[in-house]
Amino acid sequence: MSSEMTLLGQVAISCIGIRKQFVLRHTRSLKEAVVWLVKGRKGDLSKKFLALKDVSLDVKQGETVALLGLNGSGKSTLLKLISGVLQPDGGTVHTRGRVAGLIEVGAGFHHDLSGRDNVYLNGAILGMTEQQIDDKFDSIVEFSEIGEFIDTEVKFYSSGMYLRLAFSIAVHTDPEVFLIDEILAVGDEPFQRKCIAKIKELSDKGKTLFVVSHDLDLVATVCERGVLLEHGEIVMDGEVHDVVKELRRRTATV
Question: What whole-number distance in Å separates Cα of residue 164 and Cα of residue 148?
């Protein structure tokens, strides 16, 4: 039996009872601060925000999933938990195979290093060996369209250049799970089409895709399944066109 067949139907991402809370530190009035001190510093002057509430979700190997919802619904938080950028306050997250996350454009870049050095730095962070990066370096640069700027310090790059290089490095790691957060919203239309074609290529190879985007037409062409988050909870999980339709209905009534 081939390795591709043995992976068929296996769970690539498993979230069980995920809970994530953030502390929002607001400046309180002098009166509130004095009362707090008089009471012996009892109670909490900071406000807490529950971003995710007991979210459970399984994504099988080879699935293409769009994570949808209005701003503040918890989409990016869930993606960061899956990628390991954040840790849950409750519940568990498991992933299978190499995970490549395009969550914050150029987040892993060192501004004082050149594009070339950052290819090797980011490639290593994403699990590639130096030899693998050597073998794919020319292809990474060609896809990114950085050209002569590859030896320029990335602090001089535009946001579009950041995007192209970050995306190119990530897709060349040949990940089993590919996480994308609004990254296609940056950059020009020709490069967006190029990215979409590459994403579809990964999908055709049986890779698992988990995409967050406000571009509903885009996710409907790239993904098959949709998961709708609202106030940190999953309110719908099904065929992507049905979920997109439901989100549009809810958006129209907001």
Answer: 14
Nearest to 219 by CA among 244, 237, 185: 244
3 domain residue, yes or no: no
What residues does 13 pair with on adjacent strands? 59, 95
Mean pLDDT for back-to-back runs of 10 residues, the chain (254 residues): 47 94 68 65 66 94 93 89 90 88 68 94 87 96 92 90 86 86 68 84 89 86 93 95 93 75
In a domain, 176, yes or no: no
Q: Cβ distance 83 to 97 under 8 Å?
A: no
Q: Output the six-digit token pair for 24.
A: 């929002």
| Cα–Cα distance measured from residue 241 to residue 220, given in angstroms and rounded to the nearest whole number | 6
Nearest residue to 101 (alpha-carbon basis) of 171, 52, 157, 191: 171
| Per-residue DSSP letter, 26 | P
Q: What's the number of domains the chain is made of?
A: 1
The C-alpha atoms of residue 36 and residue 33 are separated, in whole angstroms, by 5
Q: Is residue 245 part of a domain?
A: no
The answer to whether residue 135 is domain-embedded is yes
* Domain containing residue 129: 110-168
All residues at 6 or more sequence positions from 170 whose CB lies less than 8 Å from its CB, including other chains:
100, 101, 102, 122, 126, 178
pTM: 0.80
Distance CA 116, CA 215 (A): 32
